[in-house]
Design a protein that fits this description.
Number of domains: 2
CATH topology of the largest domain: 60s Ribosomal Protein L30, Chain: A
Largest sheet: 7 strands, mixed
Radius of gyration: 18 Å
Helix content: 10-25%
CATH class of the largest domain: Alpha Beta
Shape: globular
Number of strands: 14
Strand order of the largest sheet: 5-4-3-2-6-1-14
CATH architecture of the largest domain: 2-Layer Sandwich
Structural class: mainly beta
Strand content: 35-45%
CATH superfamily of the largest domain: Hypothetical protein, similar to alpha- acetolactate decarboxylase, domain 2
Amino acid sequence: MIISDKRSIILAYNTVERLLKGDFFHFSKIEEITQEFANFDKEWPVIGLGTTNWYKRNGEAIVEGFAESPEFLWADPESIPPGKLINLNHDHPDHKENLKSPVIGPEDALPQFPFMAIALCDPKELREYTLSAGENVHEWIENKFPSENLGLAAIHIGGKLDEVKSTAACHIPIGGLDLNEGYSLKDNFKFIEYKTGSWSMQGLYGINPTIQQVLSVPGHPLHLHGYEINEKRGGHINQAISTSTTRITVYPIKDINIRIKDLDKALVPVKPLQ
């Protein structure tokens, strides 16, 4: 499909809806994604998030940087303490011998993303906001963006934040996972709470319910991942409270392009996993 390198866009490799129904088999890899970035201005910011299909160690992926040299970071749910940040561009998780993918064929230790969505952002469209101390970041965004008629956007949040609550997915079953009640399943997520810290968060926002099925879950327009800069730990962000230093950078996004590969076979073999 032809895409314009002059328009901001989210490239969605599979969807959250399909992931949560157990689709680990239509995945993307780092080299495939970065090849597509070559069509864009090398100085365009990239903001993305996703997960891996490592069995019982899915974790939370964070993409940041620029189109020329994006960084693919990953929060490990099985590290001690949970959420240790790994740069997947050049590093392997600890105990990589325990990494297992349900997909037959590719090397298990190489990351495969059954869901990944990355915004290529036009810097000319940038908007910046400074929050007052004590704001719930999710609530602020979900109130502010409709008032500005923002339908689709990529978000970076930086500065000090209080009372951050995060999760790191440790087990998305092959049979799927129901998140209608939110991220509360203790067998499937590691729960992490932080005191005041310096954070970098990357998020995607979509107000349309059909877009939420691609980028998030219904009723939740904001999907946010991030990490504490000094501790190098993070994950999926469920709550964050602003301080006087919290800054939000927003890039309105014009287009979304969904890529789901290798749909020619109705059934695919599943690797036996223990």
